[in-house]
Amino acid sequence: MVRHYLRVDYLDLTFRLFDENISNVNIHIDALPYLSCDKCDMHFLPDDSRFAIIYLHEQATKKKSDVVNVTRNKTKFDYEFTNVPFIYDSDDYKYIPGLKRPFDEGYLTPVYFNREVLLKYDASPTYRLSFASTTYGDMRQGDDFSIPFGVNKNGKVIMWLGDIARLPETEQYYLRSENIEPDHSIGSEFYDGQIEAKFTEHSKEDTLFQKRSVFLEECFNRFGVKVAHLDKEVYDLAISFNAPIVDTEKERRHVADTLNKIHLESFDNNALGQILKNFSLEPKKLGSIKRLQLTMEQIANPKDVSDIISPFYVLYDLRVAYSHLGSKEGNEKKLKFVRERLRTSKDAGLLEIYNVLIEQLNISYEKFTTFIKENT
User: In 10 A of CB 279, how many CB atoms?
Assistant: First the structure.
C-alpha cells in the first residue's frame, strides 16, 4: 500500500542512503528506493529494495566480504506504449506498491502534469471533466475516450501511461505540452480508488463539488453547452478549501467569498444567456443566479425551481452580509434574512450557518439534476 503503514500518512517514493550492518555485513547503498512519510519522518523499504539488500548480502557472504558499497542506478525502461515522448519514471512503476502486474507491463506507470492541463480540457467545448471529488475525476470526449485522473498533495495531475496511450496521437501531444518531471507522490484518492479499490469518505466540501460536477454534466447533456467554467482560481480554491473551524470576521469573509467563487461566479453567463435565447427569452440585465433559475424553469415547475434555488441566493446574501461593504445595520439585516431562510437559530454564527447552507446547496444540486434527467 502507499498508505497506512502504522497509520502514517500517504507515502512518497524517495531515494535515500541505506547504511546498516546486516548479519555482520556492512551494506552501504546510495539512492535506494524508500517509501517515505514527510509528516512523521518515517521510511519503509519496498519489496524490491528488500530483495536487493538480500541479494547483495548473499553475494558478499559468498565472497567472504564484510562490506558492500554500491550506488544504485535508476531504472530507465521505455514501456513503448506510445511514440509520444512522455516524461515518466519507471522506478515509480517498479517500487510503488500495487502498480506492477503480470500483464501489460508498465501500464500503471504514473505520468505527471501541470494542473493547467485540466483547464485546457475544460476550456474546450468538445471535452468534459467530471469530478468524484476535488482531486479525483475523469476527462472525456463524448463516447470516444474517458480516462481517470487524480491530483496529488503537491497539486500535480496524475494519469496512467497505458490509459494515455489509448488516446489518439493528437490528444497525446496535447497532454505532452503539460507533462512534467515526476515528483513520485502518488498517494491520493486517485490511488485509493484505482489501485486499492477503496473510496474514502468525502468531506462535505468534496461532496458538494461532486454534486456540482454531476449537475453540470447533466446540463451539458440537456442543453449542449457548458454552463460553468473551471478557471485556475476556482479550481485552486476548491482544492484548498476546508470547512471553517473558528468564527472570526476574517474567516467569515473567506468562507463566503470562496463559496461564491466556486458555486456562483463560475457559472458562464454567456452560456446561460444562449440557452435562454433558445427558449425565446431575453437574458439582458440578469445575473447568473437569475439566469440559472429561468433556465431551470423552462424544464420544471417554476414554483419548485424558486424553492430549490433559494440556497444560491442565500449564499450571495451571505457574502454581502460578511463583506462589510454596506452599513453595519444593513449587513445585520441581511444576515438576519440569511438565518431566516436557512431556518437556523436566531443567533446562529458562521459554523451553524455554514453547515446548514452546505447541506441545502447539496440538495439543490441533486434536485436540479433530477429535473434535468426527467426532462432530457
Answer: 13
